[in-house]
Every structure is written in structure tokens, then in C-alpha cells.
Design goal:
The protein has 15 helices and no strands. It has 295 residues and is mainly alpha-helical. The chain folds into two domains: 35-110, no CATH class; 121-295, Hypothetical protein af1432, CATH 1.10.3210.10. The relative contact order is 0.13.
Length: 295
């Protein structure tokens, strides 16, 4: 998480504009001024009911059923090829909740809310960028889920949510461009600045939203694949590896170099051949999960 003490040094006359822009965002975050739209009420209610361990499944279903679009998303996910490759179709919301489990239901509610936030952005010119970020997030989430499930390095449901949240910092920066004057945002200096700062910005946002500490830590350390995050948090290794594998989904020729240059694969016990088998065996499942989280 960014703090006032960790901000870039005061801008001099020769500093590039991107540094000043990012500094403004970081100062906002340091004082808790989060200006992304708040989660819709339905997402808050779902989180509250799932935090109550005494709440019966019928109550959870009642809360979710109040929003037809969210209920449809959960039913679609439960019936997707990822979770139901050969079983009967579920039409009852309570059965869908049982199949997915509380963590995945919470993750679905959060992802649904994020998608609604991006679709509802007032600046029409931002929507293609936000849509692209959302699609990238769902792909990373699907790959992270598969890696966590196959390596048992982390809980798959937490890995899924971590993947969905990993680029929330980039989304925040994109939205904030409509509130600040930021020149030179198409330069290499701008791209490098965003790459460096978006994990810390994301960590601050997730802390503000009261996400679990392992998810905050993994997202905030996603640019540190060389062991700079706590080693007991294997979720970081899963996220770093999932992000690295995204280009390989579209071009398997990149696998060998990717695995050799990203240390987290070795920490997870994955070599290039193992990653090749993992992606090949789960390609349809990854597509199904991404589709279920996006449609």
C-alpha cells in the first residue's frame, strides 16, 4: 500500500508529467480518498450475509435473488463447463450456492459489481479500456484458479478473486484520468510509471474495501517475483505465474522462455512441460470460467 512516506520525491521542473499524476493519486490513497464508484448495495449485502456463519442457505439465496442479474450470473457459473462438465443443469439458486461454496459466491458478487462499475463509467471514451482491463482480469483469474487447484499452493477460490482484483489499480488510474490533467499518457515513461505503481494503488484500494490480507499482499507484490513478499503467502507466487502465462495462452512458443525467466514457476514446481500440460488440459475450462465471469 502506498503511503505518504513512500511517494516519489517532489516533482522538479524536469520531471515527466506522469510522475506528478501518479503522485496525486497516491496522495489521495494515503488519506483514504478512494474515488472509484462504491460497490452496488447488492454486493455489500452478499458479503454481509456470507460473513454471518449462522445465516442459512435460504437467506443467502434470498439476498442474491433480489438482484436478477447477479442470480443469473451465479446460476450460469454453477452450470458452466468449469464446474459442471458432465452433471445435470441446476435451476435452483440454493443448489447453485451449494455447488460453488461461499468463497466463490462472494467472489462472483464482487466481480459482478466491478463489471457493473466499469460498464457504468460516465466517460464513454474510457469504456474500451475498462472493458479490456476487465477481460484481462477474468483471464488471469481463471488461470490463477487452475494453477492453485493443480499445485495446491493456495486456495483456488482465493486465487480466483486475487486474479480478478490484480489490475484494479490500473482501472483506478484509467478512471482518474477523467479527474486530472495528465499529459503524455501514451509515452513509455507513462507506461513504466503505471506498471510500477498500479500494484501499490490496488493494495490500498483492497485494504479500503476490507479484502482478506493474503489477497491484498499478493496483489500489492505482483511485480516482485523474486521473493520480496512473505514466502508463506503462496498466493503471490500463483498470481505472478498466472499473469506471466497470459501471453502463453495465445502463443505456446513463449512458454519455455517465460518459465525460465519467472522464478515463481520453480517455487510452484512447474516447468515448461508442466505448464504446457496444464494449459492444454484446462483450456476449455479456462474459456468456460472466463465466459461465465464476463457474460
Amino acid at each position: 500500500m502506498a503511503t505518504a512516506n513512500s511517494l516519489p520525491q517532489k516533482k522538479s521542473a524536469g520531471d515527466p508529467e506522469p510522475g506528478g499524476f501518479i503522485r496525486k493519486l497516491s496522495l489521495e490513497l494515503a488519506v483514504g480518498d478512494i474515488r472509484l464508484p462504491s460497490f452496488p448495495d447488492i454486493a455489500v449485502r452478499v458479503q454481509q450475509v456470507l460473513e454471518d456463519t449462522r445465516a442459512p442457505r435460504t437467506q443467502v439465496a434470498q439476498v442474491i435473488g433480489a438482484d436478477a442479474a447477479l442470480a443469473a450470473r451465479i446460476l450460469r457459473l454453477a452450470n458452466s463447463a468449469f464446474f459442471s462438465p458432465a452433471t445435470h443443469q441446476i435451476t435452483d439458486l440454493q443448489q447453485a450456492l451449494t455447488r460453488l461454496g461461499n468463497q466463490l459466491v462472494r467472489c462472483t458478487a464482487v466481480s459482478f459489481s466491478l463489471q457493473q462499475m466499469t460498464l457504468g463509467s460516465g466517460a464513454a471514451e474510457l469504456r474500451p479500456t475498462l472493458h479490456k482491463l476487465w477481460r484481462q482480469g477474468t483471464l488471469v483469474a481463471a488461470i490463477a484458479y487452475v494453477i492453485a487447484r493443480e499445485t495446491r499452493a493456495a486456495k483456488p477460490d482465493e486465487a480466483l478473486m486475487t486474479g480478478l482484483m490484480h489490475n484494479i489499480g490500473r482501472l483506478y488510474i484509467a478512471v482518474s484520468q477523467t479527474r486530472h490533467s495528465a499529459e503524455g499518457v501514451d509515452t513509455d515513461a507513462w507506461a513504466n510509471m503505471v506498471h510500477e505503481w498500479h500494484p501499490r494503488i490496488a493494495g490500498a484500494i483492497l485494504k479500503h474495501w476490507k479484502f482478506p490480507l493474503p489477497i491484498i499482499t499478493a496483489v500489492a507484490h505482483q511485480n516482485n517475483p523474486h521473493g520480496e513478499s512473505p514466502r508463506e503467502n503462496r498466493l503471490t507466487d500463483v498470481l505472478v505465474s498466472a499473469v506471466a502465462l497470459v501471453p502463453c495462452v495465445f502463443n505456446r512458443d513463449l512458454l519455455e522462455q517465460t518459465v525460465c525467466t519467472v522464478p515463481t514457476f520453480q517455487l510452484l514446481g512447474l516447468d515448461a512441460a508442466g505448464c504446457q500440460r496444464l494449459l492444454a488440459a484446462t483450456a476449455d475450462q479456462i474459456k468456460a470460467l472466463q465466459a461465465a465471469l464476463t457474460q
